Every structure is written in C-alpha cells, then in structure tokens.
Amino acid sequence: MLKLQRIALSSAALALSLAAALTWPLAAATPTAKPEDVGFASERLHRITDLVQRHIAAGDFSGAVTLVARNGRIAHFEAQGLMDIESRKPMPKDGIFRIMSMTKPIVGVSIMMMVEEGKVRLTDPVSKFIPQLKDLKVAVPMTAAPGAPVPAGRGGAAAPPRYYTVPAERDITIRDLMTHTSGLVSGGLSNTEARNVALKGKESLADYIPRLGSVPLDFQPGSRWAYSAQAGFDTLARIVEIVSGMPFDQFTRSRIFEPLGMKDTFFYPAEGNPRLVTRYARGQGGQLEKQGLANFMNGAYFSGGGGLMSTAEDYLQFGQMLVNGGQLNGKRLLSPRTVEMMGSVHAPDTLQGRPRGEGYGLSMRVVNDPVARNTFLSQGSFGWSGAYGTHFWVDPKEKIVAVLMIQTPNNELRADFENAVMYALVGGGVSGTGTN
C-alpha cells in the first residue's frame, strides 16, 4: 500500500511539473551584443567554433552548444554538430543536456538560501537533520606485508579490500558536504561499502539517505579533499527537503528556476523529449556508442549530485544571477555577501586532494592562483562541470558567464574552451542592461 501511495504521489508531482511547464510564461531572451561592444574580439571568439569543430571531426563527441556572455549580454552562442548521430538531427541551441554535477551549484544555492533564512548553519552537524548520520565510523585500510600475496576473491578476482574502523573525531557538517571534505562515499572504501545500501527501484532521497549511516567514511572529516560524486550532495538535497518542507524538485522549481526564467531545467521527465541530446561514450575502438540513463534516474529520486537536465541559455540565467551578486531581472535569490562566500576558498589548494591553483568553495571550484593552475581564467573565477562533458564558470571581475554543453566526457575541450574565451577578451566593454 505504501509503495502504491508513493507511486501515486510521484505521478501527481510529475503531472504538476508538466502543468507548470505548460503554463510558465516564456522567459525573455537574454540580450545579445556584438562581441566588440562587450570587450571581445569577434575573430577571436570564432576560435571557439573552430575548436569545437576539430573535436567533432575527430569523433570526440557528436555535437556541442557553447555560450559566452558578458555584462548580461550574449556575445557568442552557437550550436554545432549533431544531437543524435543515428537520425542525423542537427544540434539545436535549445538542446536539453543531462548536466550531472552542474546540479551541485544549484544545491549549493538552495542550501545558502536556507542559511539566509536561519534554518541551516554551515557549522551544523548533518545529524541534526538526519539522525542516522551521527557517530559515523572511518574506514582504515589494512595493508599487507611487503611481498605478501594478494588474497583472491571469487572467480580469481582480487578480494575486497580489508579494513577496520575507528570513530570519527567529529560529526560531519554542512560545510564538509559542501566542500567535499566529509569523506562520505568519496571514492575509497566508503564507495565499496555503499554498494551494500544501494538505491533500489523507485526509492526517494528520504528512503536512501538514512542508510548512509551504516557506511564508513573514507577519512576523518575535514582532513582532506575527495570528491563525493553523488552521496554528499544528495544528502544536502535531502536536508533542503527537511528544512523547507518541500520535495527537492518542487523547491528548485519554485525558488530558483521559476524566478530566474529557467523554463527548460528539470529532474523529470527526460526520455521522449525531442530536444533531449543523446549521450555517447567512446568505445574501445574509438567510436561513439549510445548510452542510457544513469541508474539513479528512477523518476522519484531527485539527485543533488547529478540529476538535473538543462539548456545552455537556462544555465546562463543561473550563472548571471551569481555574477550579479544573487539577483537577476529584479528577483533576488541571495545576498551579494552570500554569493561572495560561495565563491571564496573554503578548501585551499594546499589541502590534500586539491590541485595547485584551484581551491574549493561552497559547491564549486575556485581559481585562487591562475599561474599555478596554468589557466588564463581570472583569479576568483568559480564554477563546476558535469560527468558527461558539461562545464560552466563565472568571472565576477570581468562579469563573464561561459557555458559548454556536450554529452561525452572531454576534459581537454573544457580547459581549451576556458582559455579560448579569455584569449578573446581584449577590452573592458560597456556595461549594458539585463544585469540587474
């Protein structure tokens, strides 16, 4: 009976989402500008087009959408290649992409909205909201003596790693989750043990997150940086549900997407949408092979770690809100000081696990030393990326928002796209409308 009630509730929520999408007024198009009017050189911005085309020709991915805006106006917006190889359908500018971990900054904004409302503190222990995550253990691997044979498991494969546990020295906090310094399912033994409590069927955040209390942490909280690809931000999304009293999809829709005019950003539905870009991965022979949905996309689980779909222009609205210090088109989501805190370094590049020149803020990377990072981005630029190739950053100093959308992982393109945008910046530009 309970399962039937959940299905009915999910169906009702889906119907409401569809109704809302149909009744939303279309957001006004973001103003455009000649590149020179906002400080870019046209011929240099065209190098982005050439860069993407080289990758498409090499078979690295099927197509892409790239967008660059400055001072609230779009200077470059282009769709290239195919959204689906089999049908030869051209990539549209309003193609919908699975943005995966670019969901995390949206979770970060959601948490900071709750901080501003006094419902959450960054220093709060996570167990304040989810009691099952209190008194966690930390996994300590048991190393074999030098030269000792590696124990074999079933079928001759290596046996699961052996470990013992010690008590965590303190509770994990909201800040730990926001900065990937919690050790919760962050790539080590914690990931191995998390398989024992894996998401099942049509389970929700409320069903799954409490089970993480039985999973040991990878390290003592705060002692290093290690990426919690899903569990950390799924937990944060569940906390937003608890303190707001709303399912996470409804919270993001009513508190973020509708105010910003992000009409094409959602958790579900996904399959069947004619603008949904096909996801591909490189096969062993180098060819692109079509991929299906991630296993956590079950229609009921609103993953803060990577569940959203969006378009380049929709995500621009989110980025522009950050550049503007928390507001867009008269709608304020956060205070300027809160956005500044999100883009400040909370996990320095000296912390084990972080690359040189790149600290980590509240849900996003922060460029704290461009020379050490070997990048042309401005110091203080911040943003994040998605596992399927999406990428964005904002530059508060230069008032730039840049968005890259593809559906095949490619770290080389990500770095080259960043630099190509900055190579094209040749002047200060004139501040235009559309930034308030």
Describe the structure.
It is built from twelve helices and 16 strands. It has 436 residues and is α+β, with helices and mostly antiparallel strands. The strands form five sheets. An eight-stranded antiparallel beta sheet has the order 3-2-1-16-15-14-13-12, sandwiched between helices. A two-stranded antiparallel sheet has the order 4-9. A hairpin with a 2-residue loop joins strand 1 and strand 2. Helix 2 runs antiparallel to helix 12 and helix 3 runs parallel beside helix 7. The radius of gyration is 22 Å and the shape is globular. The N terminus and C terminus are likely disordered.
Gist?
With about 425 residues, the protein is of the alpha+beta class. It is built from twelve helices and 16 strands.
Strand arrangement, largest sheet?
Answer: 3-2-1-16-15-14-13-12
Helicity range: 25-40%
Look at the helices and sheets and give the structural class.
alpha+beta
Number of strands: 16
Mind summarizing the main beta sheet?
A: 8 strands, antiparallel
Q: What share of the residues does DSSP label as strand, in percent?
A: 15-25%
Chart the SSEs and their pairings.
Blueprint: H1 2-23, H2 42-57, E1 63-70, E2 73-84, E3 89-90, E4 97-98, H3 104-116, E5 137-141, E6 163-167, H4 174-179, H5 189-194, H6 205-208, H7 231-244, H8 248-260, E7 280-282, E8 288-290, E9 309-310, H9 312-323, E10 327-328, E11 331-332, H10 336-342, E12 358-360, E13 365-367, H11 370-373, E14 382-385, E15 391-395, E16 400-405, H12 411-423
Helix pairs in contact: 2-12, 3-7
